[in-house]
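ok so for the tutorial part 2 we go from a plain amino acid sequence to predicted structure tokens. step 1 is just haveing the sequence, like this:
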Amino acid sequence: MNVVRFILQNHAQVLELTLEHLWLVGFSTLLAVLVGVPLGIVISHRTSFSKPVLASANIIQTIPSLALFGFLLPVPWLGERSDRLAILALTLYALLPIIRNTYTGIRSVDPAVVEAGRGMGLTDSQLLFQVELPLAVSVILSGVRVAIVISVGLATIAAAIGAGGLGEFIFRGLAMVDNRVIFAGAIPAAILALAADLGVGWLEKRLHAR
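step 2 — the prediction. this is what the tokens look like for a chain of 210 residues:
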């Protein structure tokens, strides 16, 4: 109850930090989709590139978040604004599930369906947009779903470099040794992750059923 009372008493700040958190996660996920989906499409058709691209994305995932922030901090223009740095880091972490699922989704399309499309006279771009992507979209959304959940959790670390978000409450609570403040950041972050997971999961099932 103390946590609920604290959140209600500081609802304006909780709302402000939640919106900052959503901005970091939403913008970085959008960038990851804009980069990851085309990359996944390219490596699904040019398989010689698949291993280096997926290996690079895997390597990024193994770098601890604070270490990655440290690596990016000296980069010109990025290091000047903590929100830019946080968005780039979150984008890099979100790439792996999106690239991998796009690659897997397109590669799992039945070759007989693709050949039937070719037999109907479809060009490569028509095959991609009218056959492969519609059949792979639920798998791609599954990757986006994982990327969003990862980003919601990692965005709490962005507060360590002054990028804002719900992590500010968590770090402040740790410094004060106050569980109420920690939970004021952790509970909304957990709710955001669950809401994103359920929302994208519902959309994924609807598209899969269609």
